[in-house]
Write a structure and sequence with these properties.
The complex is a heterodimer of chains A (100) and B (402).
Chain A: E1 2-9, E2 22-25, H1 31-46, E3 60-68, E4 71-78, H2 84-99
Antiparallel strand pairs in A: 1-2, 1-3, 3-4
Helix pairs in contact in A: 1-2
Chain B: H1 13-19, H2 25-54, E1 61-65, E2 76-80, H3 89-109, E3 121-125, E4 134-136, E5 141-143, H4 158-172, H5 180-202, E6 212-213, E7 228-229, E8 238-239, E9 243-244, H6 264-271, H7 273-286, H8 294-304, H9 311-326, H10 331-342, H11 352-362, H12 372-401
Parallel strand pairs in B: 1-3, 3-5
Antiparallel strand pairs in B: 1-2, 4-5, 6-7, 8-9
Helix pairs in contact in B: 1-2, 3-4, 3-5, 4-5, 5-6, 5-7, 7-10, 8-9, 9-10, 10-11, 11-12
Classes of the chains: A alpha+beta (100), B alpha/beta (402).
The structure holds zinc ion (ZN).
Zinc ion binds next to helix 4 and helix 5 of chain B.
């Protein structure tokens, strides 16, 4: 399973718009971490997408793309409207990429 | 820190959220499960509570501490309008900035809070971990701490805070759609009133003000003046790490990007440089305190603008409003005319030669002193052309009304 995180918008967007999306391959993770990531992804995919936030000015938005074999799932949420499951996955990914 | 906002489970929600960060996988999973099952209920309660509290609050301020969490419903109270100062300086800074912005709108434009009906002002500090942002989510103002490398604590920047609250004012007035030119107008209005709140709080004249947005945002280690410059869009930063400020200062440099998240909704944070510069030029030509005449023209124009306005529509509206407020052919109206002409958005219906003559007439450093005859002729011509333009407007209005 390949997971990609792209971040857009916010106060820094104009100065810092070209950060490449960050990605990881769960095959490269230890067994526990890979299983946890799978669970977080499953919960984020299952959670209803938070609507209503719309285009909140200056909020950041995040696109998480999950590629599993032939299947590809794209989740996009924003700081102004985010499901708990998406936030849990995002927090996990941000921590993982910060450590790397 | 005295109470949670919506307590409805045995373990306080902020502790649950902390547990999400636990090193133990099973603890994290249990916390997540609990949060997921209770979130919907809490969300419904939060909506009911905010409706109940919204009426006639006269902009009462409340600051909450997210304690590095991402969920506003889980934040704890840090400071209220009548309560003592917080021990946390970020909470106090947010509280003070909300107050200055509220007082600016009240004293300068007699506007009662963001919605002009006393809407309460809720601020949330310490949002998420090392969060490099501050935003307005349609109901409340949210601040990150910054990562300490690129951005510092976002509560330190009064103009950024006033910028965000002004997004709320725009939502309740013109409602400029947040994409392409109307989105750039939305961004520009936030910069205009963001900087005016700062100038007003410091009692700075047009000449004394720095016309920069977010001077406090970058950490001292980053070689940059600010996020944006209204006086000289495109010059706020230029360094190896972030490159050069990409804001245009005139229409011929308009930035075309796709209307997507990646494309900044059609470059709204880029092209705001064009109306920003028009406001700066208007204020500079009028002189004195920018919030008095130039600010009033922009505020009155905002109130009568429509959601799908393009730069041209807004420019024409400021010109018309300047005429209504200060008189056709007044210094103020001529300043508006010249400013938009300089950023290459000439006011509709005014011949170029007439606009140029009026610009010279109003801009003392640019010829009025040594070319009295030309200036006087220009003034006469422009007064005449203003009347013609107004007649044209009236005819257009009559046609629309039919
Ligand atoms: Zn903005």
């Amino acid at each position: 399973m390949k997971v990609t995180l792209a971040t857009y918008g916010g106060q820094a967007a104009v100065a810092d718009p070209r950060l490449p999306p960050r990605e990881l391959d769960s095959d490269a993770l230890p067994g526990n971490a890979a299983a946890e990531l799978s669970r977080l992804v499953a919960q984020a995919v299952a959670a209803p997408q938070e609507g209503g936030g719309g285009r909140a000015a200056d909020a950041m938005s995040y696109t998480i793309t999950v590629e599993d074999g032939a299947r590809s799932t794209v989740l996009t949420q924003s700081d102004a409207a985010m499901s708990l499951a998406f936030a849990a996955l995002l927090t996990w990914l941000e921590k993982y990429f910060a450590k790397r | 820190m005295s109470r949670t906002r919506h307590v409805n489970c045995v373990i306080p929600p902020y502790i649950l959220e902390k547990l999400l960060e636990s090193d133990d996988r099973q603890v994290r999973q249990a916390a997540l499960d609990t949060l997921l099952t209770t979130a919907r209920l809490r969300g419904e309660r939060a909506v009911r509570a905010s409706f109940a509290a919204a009426a006639s609050a006269n902009g009462r301020r409340t600051v909450f501490d997210c304690e590095q969490g991402r969920f506003l419903q889980l934040a704890v109270l840090a400071r209220s309008e009548d309560g003592p100062p917080a021990t946390d300086e970020a909470a106090n800074r947010a509280f003070d900035a909300l107050g200055l912005t509220r007082d600016f709108y009240q004293e300068v434009f007699q506007r009662n809070s963001i919605d002009d009906r006393g809407m309460r002002l809720d601020g949330y500090v310490h949002f998420a971990v090392k969060f490099n942002n501050a935003f307005w989510d349609g109901r409340e103002m949210v601040f990150g701490d910054g990562d300490g490398v690129k951005f510092g604590d976002l509560t330190r920047s009064l103009d950024v805070i006033a910028h965000e609250l002004t997004h709320g004012v725009t939502d309740f007035t013109a409602g400029f759609e947040y994409h392409n030119q109307s989105g750039a107008l939305n961004e520009s209005i936030s910069d205009v009133f963001g900087t005016l709140v700062k100038q007003w709080s410091l009692k700075q004249s047009v000449e004394e003000a720095d016309w920069l947005i977010g001077t406090e945002v970058w950490t001292p280690g980053i070689d940059a003046d600010a996020l944006r410059s209204m006086k000289a869009p495109g010059t706020a930063f230029d360094n190896a790490q972030f490159g050069r400020d990409p804001q245009p200062d005139r229409m011929s440099r308009f930035v075309h990007m796709p209307d997507t998240e990646e494309g900044d909704h059609g470059a709204v944070h880029y092209n705001s440089g064009i109306p920003n510069k028009a406001f700066y030029l208007t204020a500079k030509r009028i002189g004195g305190f920018a919030w008095e005449a130039a600010g009033l023209i922009w505020y009155e124009s905002l109130k009568v603008s429509q959601a799908d306005f393009q730069f041209q529509d807004f420019a024409d509206t400021t010109y018309r409003k300047a005429g209504e407020l200060f008189g056709a052919g007044s210094t103020e109206q001529s300043a508006v005319l010249a400013a938009w002409r300089e950023v290459e958005v000439p006011i509709s219906g005014i011949p170029t030669g007439v606009a140029r003559a009026r610009s010279l007439a109003v801009d003392g450093s640019d010829g009025a002193g040594r070319e009295d005859g030309v200036a006087a002729l220009g003034r006469q011509l422009s007064a005449l052309s203003t009347r013609v333009a107004e007649l044209a407007d009236d005819v257009a209005a009559l046609k629309r009304a039919r």
